[in-house]
Design goal:
The chain is mainly beta and 184 residues long. The protein has helices spanning 32-39, 168-171, 176-179, and strands at residues 2-5, 12-15, 18-21, 24-27, 46-52, 58-64, 72-78, 80-87, 98-104, 110-113, 117-123, 128-134, 143-145. It is an enzyme of class 5 (isomerase).
Length: 184
């Protein structure tokens, strides 16, 4: 299992090793001992999975407030997505900055997103599934979002706003400037 640090502190790109032969391949997609060595004392409590039928589906940008903030280990076991993490930590030198990573069934990569970040993705093909382990339970009272196409974020989404498939909730999220302090 390979762990790669990214441009924004705290984010990790995780690439599990695949052992293959004529039958296909086998992979350990998560090992607590190796993950803790790379990311710290992390404990997962919930495993989520989403399915998005059409290409151009955007989900996010989502996060939960303290004390129910969630870290997420995200992977794409079916299809291909552009995954996005936005730094919402006010004291961070990369506050408001983002990274994008392509996650796919083919590349097997995963993205570790600690609490203090908003997370979202856009499907790059039809019939995509995302699976993610989270460090706290879903809490509707602490659930928040950030407008996916806020110009201040500068995210190069692979879909035009009018063609994006979004929930009503995600179309109405506030901009970064309207959020106010979320995380220290």
């Amino acid at each position: 299992m390979q762990f790669e640090t990214l441009e924004i502190e705290g984010l990790l790109l995780v690439t599990p090793k695949r052992h293959g032969d004529e039958r296909g391949w086998f992979s350990e997609v998560f090992r607590e001992d190796l993950f803790r060595k790379a990311a710290g004392d992390i404990h997962f409590v919930q495993h989520n999975q989403s399915y998005s039928k059409p290409r151009g589906t955007v989900r996010g940008l989502h996060f939960q407030l303290e004390p129910r903030a969630q870290g997420k280990l995200v992977r794409c076991p079916r299809g291909r997505v552009l995954d996005v993490a936005v730094d919402l930590r006010r004291s961070s030198p990369t506050f408001g900055k983002h990274i994008t990573v392509e996650l796919s069934a083919e590349n097997g990569r995963q993205l570790w997103i600690p609490s203090g970040f908003a997370h979202g993705f856009c499907t790059l093909e039809d019939d995509c599934e995302l699976a993610y382990l989270v460090t706290d339970y879903y809490s509707p009272e602490h659930d928040r979002g950030l407008l996916w196409n806020d110009a201040a974020l500068g995210i190069a989404w692979p879909v035009e706003a009018e063609a994006a498939v979004l929930s009503g909730k995600d179309r109405q999220q506030p901009t970064l400037a309207a959020l106010g302090p979320m995380f220290d």
